[in-house]
């Protein structure tokens, strides 16, 4: 039974790579990224040495090495986490630590005190522990679009050896009972590949050994993906709603839809969704000769992105009926939960609003939250200054661009940037336009390496291949956290038993998201200034309309709240009124630009 009402989402490639080993025995769910099997293999070796377990290298010369590395690492983490949990149950002190983290566990603490007033090892206590203590889930994340083709010399391997497919297979073959979080949009080939593994299908009691979780930022895409999978007999057990822009890592902006209205749509349609998808799922399972569950399967709705106070957390639980709230960014400052090297930790502690920005550095071509002054960007700039822009591309996980090679190149690689700059040199451009386009090429950063290096540095492991540059992608919320915290301090903050935010000017999460969306729209209008066309006009007006609807929704919501957000309600309503004025100005600007094109 799940005791905590928060989870720790995936962060970067390496920051939560071993988080389950740190928090799973305490009942907290967390997520491992499966992007980097090279990093995973290095950590498996380290942990085998630490736990005095036999280690046999899974070399990249072995067939299907990527999937095998992932399976072996997940099994190691699973075994080690279970051992920590069993050890915890034999220690009165650790049990009290576990209970002390729970949101409302005073009755459990009292029961435990009563039971242990005599003999700690009694059968009655063991039974009580089994009924009341559970491990946190060891979940994994696969970015569906990071699905590069792979080759043996010049021979292209079958699709199932693509990166995301191999990662999925590696997870499917592991011993874990948990969930795979699929993010970054729909990949029909990968979704179809799920059918190859029994663990993703329900049994007659509705139990699923390996559950599917989709990270989404709107209801419509959830419904499309849910139907697609249901036709294959696959049930989506959870939708993880993430704010389009008020999040860490890659930012998948909606067309101006804000988080509150999106969550309201999921809440209001939950039962209708379950009924509609079941009507597709049950015949699909029967047609495949699979077991048909006796009753409707359960659906969780969770939310994450910019949550920062106990009051916001509880509001999402109560008003939007979410099953759990994701707390990502602040946990980067909790070494007991995440893996961040010392130098990067210090940069995060010092970071203010202006140090956290939405960048174009990601080779995936998706806006990416970035920390100013990170060492990977400094390394990138040194290469530009030496007239050698681009990365040597040692890992190639996002070598997905096929403009110049069927095998794919990463847009942050030296090879790609050299080819692109040569093309640019052949164009007869003004100095201003040339510089602008050159910057667009060279700003791409080697994030698939940079986002994993921190873990290697934190554990003193070899970074000869990767170099020592670190990329990190906290959400804008990081500006309001300014110290390294213990796990207990952070969890107490989530549940309102303490407060780790020293600043008094942190905006409400909904207001912060609105501000980021207004900035985003302003930049989009700026980009259209030179050459507005009908398609851009339609996009910008739709975006403006949806933002307008979202602000109106929030005005009604905050206007009708009683006893919640009393200390910030007035400032929120003022900000919303100001937001509408800003939006009105944007709308007039779009219409003026549109007229100038006629």
Provide an overview of this structure.
The chain contains 20 helices and twelve strands. 47% of the residues lie in helices and 9% in strands. The protein starts with 5 loop residues before the first strand and ends with a helix. The protein is α/β, with parallel strands linked by helices. It has helices spanning 19-23, 37-50, 65-89, 92-101, 106-115, 123-132, 163-172, 188-193, 219-230, 259-287, 310-319, 342-350, 375-385, 414-425, 431-442, 447-458, 487-494, 509-528, 534-560, 569-597, and strands spanning 6-8, 29-33, 138-143, 151-152, 155-156, 178-183, 210-216, 236-242, 300-304, 324-326, 356-359, 368-371. The strands form three sheets. An eight-stranded parallel beta barrel has the order 1-2-3-6-7-8-9-10, surrounded by four helices. Strand 7 (210-216), helix 9 (219-230) and strand 8 (236-242) form a beta-alpha-beta unit.
Essential attributes:
single chain; 598 residues; alpha/beta; 8-stranded parallel beta barrel; two-stranded antiparallel ribbon; 20 helices; 12 strands; 9% strand; globular
């Amino acid at each position: 039974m799940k005791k905590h009402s928060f989870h720790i989402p995936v962060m970067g490639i390496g920051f939560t790579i071993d988080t389950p080993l740190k928090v799973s025995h305490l009942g907290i769910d967390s997520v491992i990224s499966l992007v980097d099997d090279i990093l995973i293999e290095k950590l498996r070796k380290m942990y085998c040495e630490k736990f005095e377990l036999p280690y046999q290298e899974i070399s990249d010369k072995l067939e299907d090495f990527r999937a095998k590395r992932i399976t072996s690492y997940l099994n190691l983490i699973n075994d080690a986490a279970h051992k920590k949990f069993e050890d915890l149950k034999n220690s009165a002190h650790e049990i009290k630590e576990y209970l002390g983290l729970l949101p409302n566990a005073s009755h459990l603490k009292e029961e435990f005190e009563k039971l242990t007033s005599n003999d700690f090892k009694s059968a009655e206590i063991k039974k009580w522990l089994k009924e009341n203590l559970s491990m946190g889930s060891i979940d994994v994340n696969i970015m569906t679009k990071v699905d590069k083709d792979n080759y043996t010399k010049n021979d292209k391997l079958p699709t199932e050896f693509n990166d995301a497919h191999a990662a999925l297979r590696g997870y499917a073959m592991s011993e874990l009972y948990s969930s795979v979080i699929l993010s970054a949009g729909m990949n029909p080939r990968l979704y179809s590949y799920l059918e190859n593994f029994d663990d993703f299908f329900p049994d007659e009691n509705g139990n699923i050994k390996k559950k599917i979780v989709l990270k989404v930022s709107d209801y419509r895409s959830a419904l499309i993906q849910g139907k697609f999978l249901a036709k294959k007999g696959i049930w989506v057990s959870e939708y993880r709603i993430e704010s389009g822009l008020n999040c860490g890592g890659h930012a998948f902006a909606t067309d101006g839809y804000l988080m509150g209205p999106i969550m309201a749509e999921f809440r209001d349609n939950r039962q209708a969704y379950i009924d509609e998808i079941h009507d597709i799922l049950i015949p699909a399972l029967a047609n495949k000769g699979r077991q048909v569950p006796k009753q409707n399967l359960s659906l969780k709705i969770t939310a994450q992105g910019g949550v920062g106070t106990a009051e916001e957390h509880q509001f999402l639980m109560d008003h939007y009926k979410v099953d759990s709230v994701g707390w990502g960014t602040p946990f980067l400052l909790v070494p007991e939960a995440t893996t961040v090297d010392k130098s990067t930790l210090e940069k995060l502690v010092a970071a203010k609003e202006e140090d956290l920005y939405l960048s174009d550095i990601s080779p995936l071509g998706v806006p990416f939250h970035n920390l100013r002054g990170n060492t990977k960007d400094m390394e990138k700039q040194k290469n530009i200054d030496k007239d050698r822009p681009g990365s040597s591309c040692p890992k190639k996980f996002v070598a997905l661009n096929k403009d110049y090679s069927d095998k794919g190149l990463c847009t942050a690689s030296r090879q790609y940037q050299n080819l692109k700059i040569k093309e640019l040199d052949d164009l007869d451009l003004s100095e201003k336009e040339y510089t602008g386009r050159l910057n667009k090429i060279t700003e791409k950063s080697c994030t698939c390496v940079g986002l994993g290096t921190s873990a290697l540095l934190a554990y003193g492991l070899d970074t000869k291949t990767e170099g020592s540059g670190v990329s990190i992608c906290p959400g804008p919320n990081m500006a309001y956290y300014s110290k390294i915290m213990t796990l207990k301090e952070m969890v107490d903050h989530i549940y309102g038993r303490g407060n780790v935010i020293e600043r008094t000017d942190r905006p409400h999460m909904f207001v912060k998201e609105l501000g980021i969306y207004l900035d985003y729209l302003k930049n989009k209008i700026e980009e259209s200034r030179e050459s507005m066309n009908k398609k851009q006009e339609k996009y910008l007006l739709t975006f403006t309309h949806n933002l307008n609807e979202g602000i109106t929704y929030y005005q009604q919501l905050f206007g009708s709240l009683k006893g919640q957000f009393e200390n910030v309600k007035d400032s929120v309503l003022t900000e919303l009124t100001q937001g509408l004025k800003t939006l009105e100005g944007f709308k007039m600007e779009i219409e003026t630009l549109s007229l100038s094109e006629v």
